[in-house]
């Protein structure tokens, strides 16, 4: 059962189009973005954004784990004793991540190798724990699924945006398709060089910093008071 | 000698924060003052130093293909490595809980200092990351794994203490309003990462 099937199933139900439920999906895209505002899930966001295809695979994996995990936690929320809830949450997350890991290894082995340990680290990706703890433990199954979906989308768009710049300027391609023509490169007698800095890890941080800067310039209520 | 190499390598060249971005969330959230940053850093060194060796034993005597051979010839074929995520995280969560209780009982002062950080550490990516890197790199004995774990912890400690010190000074500088707080911290970390990359060429 994939999330892509699960969520549209929930949507058509009438009250789910209410303002509150719509906000569950739209809020995390901007006002309450998991990466730029809640500061969750940074680790994986930065490490696998060298190529756009990796970013997509990671986003889909996170989407799967958050939505399904949110639904499971929400269904069990009255049964889990609060003292050991962290362990319970971690085990559910770990189970789902193991599924994702095995599936990736079976169907897209090349990508699975590049994404490497970071799939395993989805378990401790703070988005997962944060949403389990902050939302799923106190809400019904339907809204929890929507909340997971919204947060995963908010995570995904930052990931894809960072990967877009890093792949375009670092390798001159997008999704593995060459954008900057070969003949422009200095080695072929042209004038162009790839910016190798973009491939290195620190640039991911700088790009996220700049995205935050741009976002807060337009969304002034997010500015932090020093 | 090899142990020292692994230790130094884990601190500088394979720094958890600057080279792998592990434990970023707590790194950004808890680095507002040097005092709390040092507390969290110490807790991370400690928990890494305990969990990685335990997970190392688990990996080599239970999970790896053929690791169960000590139980008898009929177990020699068993490969439980698909269980490693669940077991590693369960070990981490359980040890963190245990450490919290022990520290609370026997060192109340330390508990007061580390208090809120200990439970947070269970979900710090650098702890699970340490276990997964240990698995990937296949250290040849438990001493090497421990030395790697302590090195990673010290590297993480260094990173968070440094950024906290910078952020304390930053309070007096005039950062553009939208960049204040989180934004500038990201960019600073990026710059520090670039500086740490100078260690990359060093072969030890």
Any overview of this molecule?
The complex is a heterodimer of chains A (226) and B (204). Chain A is mostly helical. Chain A is 62% helix and 2% strand. Chain A has one domain (36-225). Chain A is built from 10 helices and 2 strands, in the order H-H-H-H-H-H-H-H-H-E-E-H. In chain A, strand 1 and strand 2 (177-178) form a beta hairpin. Chain A is globular. The N and C termini of chain A lie far apart (46 Å). Chain B is built from 9 helices and no strands. Chain B is globular, with a radius of gyration of 19 Å. In chain B, 46% of the residues are buried. Classes of the chains: A mainly alpha (226), B mainly alpha (204). At the A-B interface, helix 3, helix 5 and helix 10 of A face helix 2, helix 4, helix 7 and helix 9 of B.
- Shape label of chain B: globular
The coarse overall form of chain A would be globular
- In terms of quaternary structure, the protein is heterodimer
What's the pLDDT, averaged over the residues of chain A?
A: 78
The SSE string of chain B, one letter per element, is HHHHHHHHH
Q: SS-based structural class of chain B?
A: mainly alpha
Distance between the termini of chain B: 10 Å
Provide a count of the helices of chain B: 9
Total tally of structural domains of chain B: 1
Computed structural class of chain A: mainly alpha
Distance between the termini of chain A: 46 Å
What value does the Rg of chain A take, in angstroms? 19 Å
């Amino acid at each position: 059962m994939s999330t892509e099937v699960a969520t549209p199933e929930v949507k058509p139900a009438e009250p789910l189009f209410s303002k509150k439920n719509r906000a569950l999906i739209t809020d995390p895209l901007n006002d309450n973005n998991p990466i730029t505002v809640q500061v969750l899930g940074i680790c994986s966001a930065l490490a696998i954004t060298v190529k756009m295809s990796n970013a997509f695979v990671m986003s889909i994996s996170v989407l799967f784990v958050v939505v399904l995990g949110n639904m499971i936690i929400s269904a069990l929320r009255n049964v889990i004793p609060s003292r050991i809830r962290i362990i319970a949450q971690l085990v559910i997350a770990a189970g789902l991540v193991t599924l994702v890991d095995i599936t990736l290894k079976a169907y897209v082995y090349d990508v699975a190798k590049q994404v490497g340990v970071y799939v395993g680290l989805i378990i401790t990706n703070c988005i997962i724990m944060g949403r389990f703890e902050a939302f799923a433990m106190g809400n019904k199954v339907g809204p929890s699924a929507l909340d997971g979906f919204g947060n995963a989308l908010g995570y995904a768009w930052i990931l894809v945006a960072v990967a877009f710049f890093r792949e375009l300027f670092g390798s001159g391609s997008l999704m593995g398709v060459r954008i900057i023509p070969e003949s422009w490169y200095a080695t072929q007698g042209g004038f162009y060089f790839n910016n190798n800095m973009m491939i290195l890890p620190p640039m991911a941080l700088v790009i996220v910093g700049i995205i935050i800067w741009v976002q807060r310039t337009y969304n002034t209520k997010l500015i932090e008071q020093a | 000698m090899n142990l020292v190499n692994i230790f130094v390598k884990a601190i500088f060249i394979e720094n958890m924060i600057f080279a792998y971005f592990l434990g970023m969330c707590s790194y950004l959230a808890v680095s507002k003052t040097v005092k709390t940053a040092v507390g969290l850093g110490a807790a991370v060194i400690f928990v890494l130093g305990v969990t990685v060796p335990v997970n190392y034993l688990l990996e080599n005597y239970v999970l790896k293909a053929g690791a169960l051979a000590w139980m008898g010839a009929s177990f020699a074929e068993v490969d439980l490595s698909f269980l490693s995520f669940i077991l590693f995280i369960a070990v981490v969560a359980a040890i963190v809980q245990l450490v919290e209780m022990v520290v609370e009982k026997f060192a109340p002062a330390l508990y007061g200092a580390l208090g809120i950080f200990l439970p947070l550490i269970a979900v710090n990516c650098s702890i699970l990351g340490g276990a997964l890197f240990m698995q990937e790199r296949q250290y040849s004995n438990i001493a090497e794994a421990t030395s790697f774990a302590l090195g990673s912890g010290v590297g993480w400690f260094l990173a968070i203490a440094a950024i906290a010190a910078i952020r304390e000074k930053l309070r007096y500088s005039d950062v553009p309003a939208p960049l204040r707080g989180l934004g500038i911290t990201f960019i600073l970390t990026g710059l520090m990462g670039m500086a740490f990359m100078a260690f990359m060429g060093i072969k030890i």
